Each structure stands twice: as structure tokens, then as C-alpha cells.
Amino acid sequence: LSAGMMAGITSPARPWFRNTIADPVLREQHDVKTWLADIDRDMRDVLARSNFYESAHAFYDEIGTFGSAVMLADEDGDNVVVFRTLTAGEFYFGLDSKSRVDTLYREFKMTVRQVVQEFKFENCSTAVQNQYQSGNLEAWIDIVHAIEPNEDQDKTKADKRGMPYRSIYYEKAARTDLILREKGYRENPILAARWSVLG
Q1: Which among 19, 74, 27 has a CA at the least distance from the CA of 51?
Q2: Strand pairing partners for 66?
Q3: How many angstroms separate the CA atoms of 95 and 100, rounded?
Q4: Partners of 184 in beta bridges
Q5: Are 60 and 1 in contact (CB under 8 A)?
Q6: Distance (Å, rounded) from C-alpha 161 to C-alpha 177?
Q7: Are 110 and 137 in contact (CB under 8 A)?
Q8: N or C, which end of the chain is more exposed by having fewer CB within 10 Å?
Q9: For 167, how many CA atoms within 13 A lie in the half-sphere containing its CB?
Q10: Cβ distance 168 to 182 under 8 Å?
Q11: pLDDT by residue (tens digit) across 124-152?
């Protein structure tokens, strides 16, 4: 099932998407067609360099097995974008009034070394800093990640406060005010699919 969905929906061997614009007159102009073709090519190149296709296959495994699947799309300094497919039991998602997934909470584990690499030493709790300094780099740390609509959005701000979605990471065992990282998104980074939606 996963292989069939991969080949039929998001095959890395052929173009599987094409950008367009809403205005039908503008869409037929040569310069616009050329620009859209360039965008398509650039997007395919970015996806090929990223881990999208590996993550997409795992995404199809999840939806075929559990009926729900979630992949997160995030910025990456090396490859423009990085994708993370989550597994059932790791996350909870919430819906807006139109039944679109707009909220995600997840719990997962990282090693002390990974936490320091990802979030920087100075942002970690004293417990993680002590383990890192004592060389206990492979100890497991429970991490919580929340993505939700930014109800406090200030549209006059260009930073995370002005973004429509916010993302917060924190250590589950640490003080509740100790945030590992908080940032915003201009668009919903949650790619969620449900096999069949009832009610």
C-alpha cells in the first residue's frame, strides 16, 4: 500500500505537482508559464535534496496502518526544508471549526547530546547541562513540542509574535517557564492526513 501510494501520489521519478495561478488570462502568458516552470523545477530540486521522499514513505505507512498520519515541515539551514514523520502514539492533534488540523502536541525522547545540539546548551535545564558536562551524553530526556494557532498574534510584528502559528519546545521534567525554543510560522507546518473522516 505504501509503495503504491508513493508511486501514485509523490513519485520521485516523475513530476507529480505543477504550480499555477488563479487568473486564467495571466496563466496563459509565456513569461508567467516560464516563471511557474522554473518554480516547479526549483521545488522538485529542494524536495529531492531534502528527506521528503523518505518521510513521505513513512507517512504512507502510518496512514495505511493507523488511519492517521502527521508529517512536520520545518526550515533547514542545509537543505532549505526538513520533514519529520511522526508515529501513532507520539502525538495528539486538534481541529479548527472546519475540521482542519491546526494544532499538534507531541512527546518524544532525545538524548542529552541531541538536546544540546538542537537547542543550545544555555537554553537547557540545569539537569541537562549537568549531564552534558559530566559526559552522560546518551541519557534520555523527555521533550514536549506544541504547535498551535497563535491566539496572541500581533500583526504589526515581523517576528514570532506576528506569525499566525507558534511552536514551543520544552523539557517535560523542567520548570514550566523554561522554554527550549519558541518560534513562529507564517503557514501551518502540520501536514496531516486521515484515511476516513466521520462526524
Answers
A1: 74
A2: none
A3: 5
A4: 166
A5: yes
A6: 17
A7: no
A8: C
A9: 16
A10: yes
A11: 999 999 999 999 999 999 999 999 999 99
Q: Mean pLDDT, to the nearest integer, of 160-168?
A: 95
In angstroms, the CA 131 to CA 138 distance is: 9
Q: Which tens digit of pLDDT belongs to each residue from 48-80?
A: 999 999 999 999 999 999 999 999 999 988 888
> Would you tell me how many other CB atoms lie within 10 Å of the CB of residue 181?
13
- In angstroms, the CA 175 to CA 123 distance is 12
Q: How confident is the model at residue 178 (pLDDT cuts 50, 70, 90)?
A: confident
